[in-house]
Amino acid sequence: MSLQATIDRALAETPPGRVVWVALSGGLDSSLLLTLAAHAVHRVPRPLYALHVNHALQPAADDFERHCGALCARLGVPLFVERVTVERAGLGLEAAAREARYAAFARRVAPGETLWLAQHADDQAESVLLAALRGSGIRGLAAMPARRDWRGRQLVRPLLGVTRARLAEEATALGIRWRDDPSNADSTFDRNFLRRDVLALIGERWPAAAASLADVAERASEADALLDELAALDLARAGGVPARLALDVLRQLSPARQRLLIRYACQRLGLPTPPAARLETLLAQLGARADAKVHVAWPGGEARRWQGHIYLQAPPEPLPNDWRSEWDGHTALMTPVGRVETRLAPAGSAPQPLTLTLRQGGESLRVAGRGRRDVKRLLQEAGVPPWQRSRQLLAWHGTTLVAVLGVAVAEGWEQR
């Protein structure tokens, strides 16, 4: 199949009317992709735009931007430029630039729209080798998917099965001009080193190396999908809630499936997966005494054990001292522990002025038919985990506690 036919088919797979963006760097790959896409829209009409991210990391950055503008003008494709500042924040330059680039994608490409990226088979081979050298698992070896959902947007790589050599032949035949990134010659970057010094040498001995490594990625992707299916079955057995896994089910699984389920649950929750050492520490605590306080933390996530369950969550933000806020009992209100969207008022009466505070300890509430009850006991009865009790919102009418929000209300009051 010709490259033009490949792009025509990829465009036809996009729902009619959906905007298609092409991430345009100005290099060979993206310049060719945009050119083929601009030809394709005459046969498969779709709104088509180009997006260039100027990282301002090298003197040639403005030249790349001008080239993209000239190319889009020739093709009649609207160009949007995002200028970014690359903040290292402990990351390597490549990773920091990628973070800035994807943040720009998220700003410009709306949810529901499609973004085409120009990575090809040689890029895929580099990703597989990098993942292997970094000790990645199956998901890492799966490298870049041809299509995936990203924050409600579709990321598509139509050229992923095509080698760079073939792209260069096509671009030359079409008379396309492009700009070579000077930083690609810098072998201090891992990917450049693999591309220039390692894969070039491997390709001399094994000419089909790039295609073979791409096949590895495809098989790893299939295996990863199967593992996700297995983890989804185990999650259903463990209660179906990623943030709260039944301990008795976890204990019945093999260690490999325990690790798989916890990683899968973290991914479902949008949490970083625990490093191998932290994960092993957590698994070692599954057999601890029932009253043991299990707390295993890692950057961006933590696990706790309580009443037969493992709880997974992001580390809570520190609470402000003596926080309080006036509340009318019915208007939505943002608090340090989340948004309040409930209605609280005396039974049969209009809402009254209230004050919200966080639990300090020692409070009590007069509950209809039960008399005065300690808030601590009410939280225990409601199954609120101990580490969440200090984050409980209380509602006061003057100096009288009238509600433990979401848990109990005072006699003569209603919460809806």
Which structural category fits the helices and strands?
alpha+beta
Which strand order do you get reading across the main beta sheet?
Answer: 3-2-1-4-6-5
Q: Report helical residue fraction.
A: 25-40%
Q: Could you give me the name of the CATH homologous superfamily of the largest domain?
A: HUPs
Integer average pLDDT: 90
What is the CATH class designation of the largest domain? Answer: Alpha Beta
What is the distance, rounded to the nearest whole angstrom, between the alpha carbons of the first and last residues? Answer: 61 Å
How many domains, in number, for the residues? 3
How is this structure best described in words?
The protein is of the alpha+beta class. The chain folds into three domains: 3-218, HUPs (Rossmann fold, 3-Layer(aba) Sandwich), CATH 3.40.50; 238-313, Uridine Diphospho-n-acetylenolpyruvylglucosamine Reductase, domain 3; 324-415, no CATH class. It has helices at residues 3-12, 28-40, 61-75, 93-108, 121-133, 138-141, 164-174, 190-205, 209-237, 247-252, 255-269, 276-284, 375-381, and strands at 20-23, 48-54, 79-83, 114-116, 147-150, 153-156, 244-246, 295-298, 301-306, 309-313, 324-327, 333-335, 338-340, 344-346, 354-358, 364-367, 371-374, 393-397, 400-404, 408-409, 413-415. The strands form six sheets. A six-stranded mixed beta sheet has the order 3-2-1-4-6-5. It has a five-stranded antiparallel beta sheet with strand order 11-15-18-19-20, with no helix packed on it. Strands 7-10-9-8 form a four-stranded antiparallel beta sheet. Helix 5 packs across helix 9 and helix 9 (209-237) crosses helix 11. The chain starts with a helix and ends with a strand. The mean pLDDT is 90.
